[in-house]
Amino acid sequence: EVQLVESGGVVVQPGGSLRLSCAASGFTLDDYTMYWVRQAPGKGLEWVSLISWDGGSTDYADSVKGRFTISRDNSKNSLYLQMNSLRTEDTALYYCAKAQRDGYNYDAFDIWGQGTMVTVSS
Amino acid sequence: SYELTQPPSVSVSPGQTASITCSGDKLGDKYACWYQQKPGQSPVLVIYQDSKRPSGIPERFSGSNSGNTATLTISGTQPMDEADYYCQAWDSSTGVFGGGTQLTVL
């Protein structure tokens, strides 16, 4: 079964840092671009970042550029999101998602994890 | 920055056809996809590349995209289709979601 499982979400103070992880199973992670998407409580979906299959290409939403860093370790079937200088507006459920087609960066998100909650509050 | 606009809500009677629109500048020149999200659940891809259905998605879900508008159509809407629906496209290496449409089946 193709599955993504996120972890690492906690309550953190403004200005703090956090690293989210996403464990992949049931498919060959290094064939696919991966993404992070977030959803603030009661709000819509917001794309956060992508990383190409080999980590050679990354993109970020303007709202997180310069503060968040996406990375991956294909040998560990894992995706990460390093979040620095956190703000209250970063409070959200963070999902990792998989590109539908191998080799495509700008693709549909065909598999989603269950999400991990990040709360930024003093 | 690029924006996708959806109606906040759409209502439909069971068995009727629901249409949810997504508007953006020259959206027809891009691929649009659609996600369904039920309360407390993760989003599910229901339409990709404007009009294609992933395996396991019922045939009553269809999509189109032309000009400035993409449309998700649900034919013979069932109560289980009640959910939030989001359109999504890519613009200049940035992923963009519409604000979402709450579909009510009543």
Overall description:
The complex is a heterodimer of chains A (122) and B (106). Chain A has strands at 3-7, 11-12, 18-25, 34-39, 45-51, 58-60, 68-73, 78-83, 92-99, 109-112, 116-120. The radius of gyration of chain A is 13 Å and the shape is globular. In chain A, strands 2, 4, 5, 6, 9, 10 and 11 form a seven-stranded mixed β-sheet that branches. Chain A has a four-stranded antiparallel β-sheet with strand order 1-3-8-7, with no helix packed on it. In chain A, a hairpin with a 5-residue loop joins β4 (34-39) and β5. Chain A starts with a strand and ends with a strand. With 122 residues, chain A is mostly beta strands. Chain B is mostly beta strands and 106 residues long. In chain B, 0% of the residues lie in helices and 46% in strands. Chain B is built from no helices and nine strands. In chain B, the strands form two sheets. In chain B, strands 1, 3, 4, 7, 8 and 9 form a six-stranded mixed β-sheet that branches. A three-stranded antiparallel β-sheet of chain B has the order 2-6-5, with no helix packed on it. In chain B, β5 and β6 (69-74) form a beta hairpin. Classes of the chains: A mainly beta (122), B mainly beta (106). Chains A and B meet through β5 and β10 of A and β3, β7 and β8 of B.
Give the helix/strand class of chain B: mainly beta
Shape of chain B: globular
What is the helical fraction of chain A, as a range of percent? Answer: under 10%
The Rg value of chain A, from CA coordinates, equals 13 Å
The largest β sheet of chain B comes out as: 6 strands, mixed
The tally of strands of chain A reads 11
- Poorly predicted parts of chain A: none
Relative strand content of chain A: over 45%
CA(first)-CA(last) distance of chain B? 36 Å
Return the structural class of chain A. mainly beta
Query: What's the overall geometry of chain A?
Result: globular
Query: CA-to-CA gap between the ends of chain A?
Result: 40 Å
| SS element count, helices of chain B | 0
- Following the backbone from N to C, one meets helices and strands of chain B in this order, namely EEEEEEEEE
> How many distinct helices of chain A?
0
Q: Average pLDDT of chain A, to the nearest integer?
A: 97
Mean pLDDT of chain B: 98
What is the ordering of alpha helices and beta strands of chain A? EEEEEEEEEEE
Number of strands of chain B: 9
Major sheet size, sense and barrel closure of chain A: 7 strands, mixed
Helix content of chain B: under 10%
